[in-house]
């Protein structure tokens, strides 16, 4: 989805679902949107419950975190969303390669996992210079050449998924994280294959690494 939608997003900012090395994750709910925007968003995110992520700074030796200035936060989040976009494209390219091989050589003698990345999006809160507590309608932004809204904060939104979190392939080792016979090994082995295919198909320019998530969804993409 590449459509801009103005909506009301409720974020549980005082609690986290988890804290990674670079971002905090918060429960969030899509409440309302202009026109049919809410239906568009809930289709994209598979419902109104989403996860809102924000990057943070943590000085060496410190136990507390701080937030980036808004402009830097937005840039970090845009980069994260672009990584998810390109990772999704690489995985789709891999499946097209598999389909092409099977169409000429016949189906593989084993089941091929059907996997995708979580659906994601970039969100930010705007405030007008004369009314910092209210967001600016998109129609005003399009028509007002001299209006300079301020970005209060940004979020990377992801569909909320359920299931046991598993790391399948580490970013420093091109082998399955689990041993043969253990749960998830077949999926991890398939993901290692996708790395080989992506390396060849991009002429050595890009692969997806650090595969982690549930059996059907993956997130936290690193090239």
Automatic annotation (TrEMBL):
Please provide, alphabetically and separated by semicolons, the GO molecular function terms listed in this UniProt record: ATP binding; protein serine/threonine kinase activity
Residue intervals of the Alpha-type protein kinase domain: 24-218
> Would you indicate the residue range of the signal peptide?
none
> What InterPro entries is this protein classified in?
a-kinase_dom (IPR004166)
Decide whether keyword rRNA-binding is in the record: no
Q: Short name of one Pfam family for this protein?
A: Alpha_kinase
List the keywords (alphabetical). Answer: Kinase, Serine/threonine-protein kinase, Transferase
Entry keyword Transmembrane? no
Protein known as = Alpha-type protein kinase domain-containing protein
- What is the protein's species of origin? Ephemerocybe angulata
């Amino acid at each position: 989805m590449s459509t801009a939608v103005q909506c009301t997003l409720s974020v549980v900012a005082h609690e986290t679902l988890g804290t990674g090395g670079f971002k905090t994750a918060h429960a969030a709910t899509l409440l309302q949107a202009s026109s049919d925007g809410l239906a568009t968003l809930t289709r994209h995110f598979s419902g109104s419950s989403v996860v809102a992520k924000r990057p943070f700074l943590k000085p060496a030796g410190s136990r507390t975190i701080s937030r980036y200035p808004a402009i830097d936060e937005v840039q970090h989040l845009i980069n994260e969303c672009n990584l998810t976009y390109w990772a999704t494209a690489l995985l789709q390219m891999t499946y097209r390669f598999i389909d092409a091989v099977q169409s000429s050589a016949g189906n593989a003698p084993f089941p091929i996992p059907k996997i995708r990345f979580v659906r994601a999006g970039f969100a930010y809160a705007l405030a007008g210079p004369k009314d910092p507590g209210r967001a600016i309608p998109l129609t005003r932004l399009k028509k007002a050449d001299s209006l300079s809204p301020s970005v209060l904060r940004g979020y990377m939104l992801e569909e909320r998924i359920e299931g046991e979190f598993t790391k399948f392939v580490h970013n420093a080792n091109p082998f399955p994280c689990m041993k043969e016979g253990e749960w998830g090994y077949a999926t991890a082995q398939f993901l290692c294959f996708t790395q080989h295919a992506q390396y060849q198909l991009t002429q050595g320019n890009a692969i997806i690494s650090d595969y982690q998530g549930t059996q059907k969804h993956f997130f936290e993409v690193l090239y």
